[in-house]
């Protein structure tokens, strides 16, 4: 099936505007996963047959590979992600207020480098509408995470209310929250990664999380922070220190980068964050650093340039327990999860490890 995507669908998508191609693919997945017959067909074609069970954040995952934020901002195709074999999905970024994002065009592709540049700017319907949507679609069979961003009009000093309001609205429907202070496309957002801002936001989210748990007679949901790959080592270490002080459950590494592999291609002259293959080693280096700085005590979700099982294994051995991709789905299509999970299974058999959990961080031994 991967070949069919490479020969037919990829060339067709490549001649379309990136954002339109994205919207059409999402619509197709939504339609295909909306009835039991076509869902079974998707599962038959794309769902990995192997289980690589792994426990993380108090939940059981069938394997370590899930959907990165940004692909399904409105929670449109939730059933589709499970049907094509992902172990979890992350919806959003969702902000407190509905917003249209930056002017179009704002998403660009370079097929040769398998790179994307985007400056979407958190286009999303806002957390109130997303909560209604999640209520309508009901409980999913795989964990659903939410990526929380800040509304553009909210001042940095009020960011804590923006994040914690979205958390409260989405709480009943979401299994885990990612506080995203690392998107490069909302002015000033990355400043929230530093100093008092970050602690204020995390404290507000923790308080709201506890209040929601009490109100719903449940347990608090895991809370993660997503970091930028462009941080200096000392900036990253300060964020990790804050995360540990606030008892945050884990780190997502990384968001898109402001760096460019070269200046020759015109998409690299576009403003925004770059992802896909050019980001791979930068994000893996951050995973290595977080793992060694925390002695492997803080679970890491590895994302950035995962296109195949070699890339996935590299991130796991660097220290990531779970993995995500965005660009990989754009360039490799829906068979990505199957090829990654089957490849990881083979790598495990060839290694000295019995489980994926045993392999996490093994490059540090
Ligand atoms: C078009 C687009 C939109 C994105 N939107 C978000 C977002 O809303 N929140 C977020 O945390 N990351 C967002 N990301 C970043 C991805 O989740 C991921 O961290 C990044 O693309 C690196 O992974 P990849 O190389 O597999 O694409 C977006 C990426 C792209 C390409």
Quick structural overview:
Helix content is 41%, strand content 15%. It has 13 helices and 13 strands.
Q: Name the bound molecules.
A: flavin mononucleotide
Helix percentage range: 40-55%
- Count the DSSP helices: 13
Distance between the termini: 38 Å
Assigned CATH architecture: Alpha-Beta Barrel
Give the oligomeric state of the chains in this entry, treating copies of one chain as homo and distinct chains as hetero. single chain
* Strand proportion: 15-25%
Q: Tell me the count of domains.
A: 1
Largest sheet: 8 strands, parallel
CATH topology: TIM Barrel
What name goes with the CATH superfamily? Aldolase class I
Number of strands: 13
Mean residue pLDDT? 94
Strand order of the largest sheet: 3-13-12-10-9-8-7-4
SSE-based structural type: alpha/beta
List low-pLDDT spans.
Answer: none
Helix and strand pattern: HHHEEEHEEEHEHEHEHEEHEHEHHH
The first-level CATH class name: Alpha Beta
Radius of gyration: 19 Å
Could you characterize what this model shows?
The protein has helices at residues 2-14, 18-32, 36-46, 78-83, 127-137, 159-170, 195-215, 233-245, 280-293, 309-318, 327-332, 336-350, 356-359; strands spanning 54-56, 59-61, 65-67, 89-94, 107-110, 115-118, 144-148, 176-180, 223-227, 250-253, 273-276, 300-303, 320-325. By secondary structure, it is of the alpha/beta class. The protein has a single domain (2-364), classed as Aldolase class I (TIM Barrel, Alpha-Beta Barrel), CATH 3.20.20.70. β12, α10 (309-318) and β13 (320-325) form a beta-alpha-beta unit. α5 (127-137) packs parallel to α6 (159-170), α6 runs parallel beside α7 (195-215) and α9 packs parallel to α10 (309-318). The two termini are 38 Å apart. The model has no long low-confidence stretch (mean pLDDT 94). Bound molecules: flavin mononucleotide. Flavin mononucleotide binds at residues 68-70, 92-93, 107, 116, 118, 120, 122, 147, 149, 180, 183, 226, 255-256, 275-276, 279, 303-306, 325-328.
């Amino acid at each position: 099936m991967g070949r069919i995507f490479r020969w037919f669908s990829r060339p067709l998508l490549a001649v379309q505007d990136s954002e339109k191609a994205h919207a059409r693919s999402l619509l197709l997945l939504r339609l295909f996963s909306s009835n039991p017959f076509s869902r079974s067909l998707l599962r038959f074609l794309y769902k990995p047959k192997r289980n690589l069970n792994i426990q993380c954040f108090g939940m059981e995952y069938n394997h370590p590979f899930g959907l990165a934020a940004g692909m399904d901002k409105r929670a449109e195709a939730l059933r589709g992600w499970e049907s094509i074999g992902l172990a979890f999905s992350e919806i959003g970024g969702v902000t407190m207020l509905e917003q249209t994002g930056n002017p179009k065009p704002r998403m660009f592709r370079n097929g040769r480098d398998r790179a994307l540049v985007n400056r979407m700017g958190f286009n999303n319907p806002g957390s109130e509408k997303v909560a209604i949507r999640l209520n309508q679609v009901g409980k999913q069979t795989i964990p659903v995470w939410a990526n929380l961003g800040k509304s553009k009009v909210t001042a940095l000093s009020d960011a804590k209310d923006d994040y914690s309001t979205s958390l409260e609205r989405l709480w009943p429907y979401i299994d885990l929250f990612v506080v995203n202070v690392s998107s490069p496309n909302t002015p000033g957002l990355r400043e929230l990664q530093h100093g008092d801002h970050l602690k204020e936001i995390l404290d507000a989210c923790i308080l709201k999380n506890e209040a929601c748990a009490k109100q719903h007679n449940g347990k608090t949901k895991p809370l993660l922070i997503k970091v930028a790959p462009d941080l200096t080592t000392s900036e990253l270490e300060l964020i990790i220190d804050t995360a540990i002080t606030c008892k945050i459950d884990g780190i997502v590494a990384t968001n898109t980068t402001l760096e460019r592999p070269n200046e020759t291609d015109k998409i690299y002259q576009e403003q925004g964050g770059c992802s896909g293959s050019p980001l791979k080693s930068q994000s893996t280096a951050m995973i290595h650093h977080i793992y060694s700085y925390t002695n492997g005590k803080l679970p890491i979700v590895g994302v950035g340039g995962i296109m195949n099982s070699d890339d996935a294994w590299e991130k796991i051995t660097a220290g990531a327990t779970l993995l995500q991709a965005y660009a990989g789905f754009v360039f490799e299509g829906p068979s990505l999860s199957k090829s990654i999970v089957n490849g990881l299974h083979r790598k495990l058999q060839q290694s000295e490890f019995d489980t994926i959990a045993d392999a996490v961080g093994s490059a540090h031994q």
